[in-house]
């Protein structure tokens, strides 16, 4: 039975304040929920139509609620979800280390949830497992972020921190994206390193420039002023994909 109290609780998780308070977030849609159920995330509540619930394996570790399509309308962020919704426990913000044999993305103030979701999905495609993000970057557990990842959120580790403090301690190459950097086609990417992607409109924060060991750029052949952060991340991931990313697949 889907009670009014449970509806109120689920809807509250669309807001960051309540996600932090309850240490829970929501996952919507058949594809993302299927990915979720085979991951190491802890599901608290699973809501689904009879057809969906009969098509997936589930256990006694969470509350199971059978609903119809009308019940799901307006329950989450997306009106188009008419199949399944899960309430999931958030993970601890555990520190991540990156060694010289792997690449990871560093996101400096990426505010748009759609961009963040696209970047997570792109990193997953190219075999990157780790993302280091500034505290100002969009919330990993924002429903729009989770939706845009198309399930890739289950395979990416993300760590929010003060980037200046983090970069001060690293001993691996740090590539920063700048308009005046070296053409990525002329850059020799080693076996591993960090790639910083800056804010959608302001670029990389000036305080981080001193930690960049090589400035790089995606060459422009037309007249566009800038690239979308998600698109830029995809191009950069492709640029280094011939290294250990391919070997790790």
Key attributes of the depicted protein:
10 strands, 32% helix, elongated, 2 domains, 9 helices, four-stranded mixed beta sheet, disordered C terminus, six-stranded parallel beta sheet, 249 residues, alpha/beta, 60s Ribosomal Protein L30, Chain: A, Alpha/beta knot
Please render the helix and strand layout as text.
Layout: H1 4-12, H2 16-22, E1 24-28, H3 30-37, E2 43-48, H4 50-53, E3 63-66, H5 69-72, E4 84-89, E5 103-107, H6 113-125, E6 130-134, H7 143-149, E7 157-161, H8 163-169, E8 174-183, E9 193-197, E10 214-217, H9 229-248
Parallel strand pairs: 2-3, 5-6, 5-9, 6-7, 8-9, 8-10
Antiparallel strand pairs: 1-4, 2-4
CATH topology of the largest domain: Alpha/beta knot
How are helices and strands ordered from N to C?
A: HHEHEHEHEEHEHEHEEEH
Strand content: 15-25%
Work out the radius of gyration: 20 Å
H/I helix tally: 9
Low confidence ranges: 244-249
Instruction: Sum up the overall morphology in one term.
Output: elongated
Order of strands, widest sheet: 7-6-5-9-8-10
SS class: alpha/beta
Counted up, domains total: 2
Quaternary structure: single chain
| CA-CA gap between termini | 43 Å
Structural notes for this entry:
- The protein has two domains: 4-89, Ribosomal protein L30/S12 (60s Ribosomal Protein L30, Chain: A), CATH 3.30.1330.30; 103-248, 3-Layer(aba) Sandwich (Alpha/beta knot), CATH 3.40.1280.10.
- Helix content is 32%, strand content 22%.
- The protein contains nine helices and ten strands.
- It has helices spanning 4-12, 16-22, 30-37, 50-53, 69-72, 113-125, 143-149, 163-169, 229-248, and strands at residues 24-28, 43-48, 63-66, 84-89, 103-107, 130-134, 157-161, 174-183, 193-197, 214-217.
- The strands form two sheets. Strands 7-6-5-9-8-10 form a six-stranded parallel beta sheet, sandwiched between helices. A four-stranded mixed beta sheet has the order 1-4-2-3.
